[in-house]
UniProtKB/TrEMBL annotation:
It comes from the Bacteria. This is Cytidylate kinase. Gene3D superfamilies: P-loop containing nucleotide triphosphate hydrolases (3.40.50.300).
Length: 209
């Protein structure tokens, strides 16, 4: 039976983590999932994609919301009020999708606590990609054609949201070295060099040719 291999990528905004993951998927011929998970979760649950977009990498605000939400996790006729669909309920649906995909084929997942969700998978590697502050700002300015102040604000907001989300659902610490198998500064080798480094690491760990 064919073995599936999983790479989970956590990343700081502006570190190039998503681009690295996408290029790595092309090199290794793995399926790549980032925001595509939202579409799949919406299709499989029958819920509106907007519910998942609003909750994307955001921790639940209340425990009461979780209690009521779990009563209606898969209703798809559009009559469920949004306050009955907590982030916890949507996280559960997305977690089930991640597990199903990991059973079907080798994958690269970006964010969304996939490393925690798949922590018991036998062939799983978790990687965190960071980059110096100024490099991240410059990359965001170029990509989005925004000012440095706007890039700073975007970084602070995104990193805060991602860390709260990850820490809340995984009970681990976002970005902490002990949480991952490999932490790497993408500015050391550039994006392409980082892809090559991670590819060699993966091939060595899993004994891939």
């Amino acid at each position: 039976m064919k073995q599936n291999y999983i790479i989970n990528i956590g990343r700081e905004l502006g570190s190039g983590g998503r681009d690295i993951g996408q290029k790595l998927s092309e090199h290794l011929n793995f399926e790549f999932y980032d925001r595509k998970l939202i579409e799949i979760a919406a299709q499989e649950s029958g819920l509106c994609k907007e519910f998942f977009e609003k909750a994307d990498e955001k921790a639940s605000q209340t425990r009461w919301g979780s209690f009521f939400a779990m009563r209606y996790p898969f209703i798809g006729d559009g009559v469920v009020p949004s306050n009955f669909l907590s982030n916890d309920a949507l996280f559960k649906i997305q977690s089930d999708v991640i597990r199903e995909l990991a059973e079907k084929h080798s994958c690269i997942f970006v964010g969304r606590c996939a490393d925690y969700i798949l922590r018991n998978h036998p062939n799983c590697v978790s990687i965190f990609i960071s980059s110096p502050h100024d490099d991240r700002v410059d990359r965001l300015c170029q990509r989005h054609n925004i000012s440095k102040d706007e890039a700073e604000e975007m970084m602070i907001k995104a990193d805060k949201g991602r860390s709260q989300y990850y820490n809340y659902y995984s009970y681990n610490t976002w970005g902490a070295a002990k949480t991952y198998d490999l932490c790497i500064n993408s500015s050391l080798f550039g994006l392409d060099g980082t892809v090559d480094f991670i590819e060699n690491f993966i091939k060595h760990k899993f004994q891939l040719k």
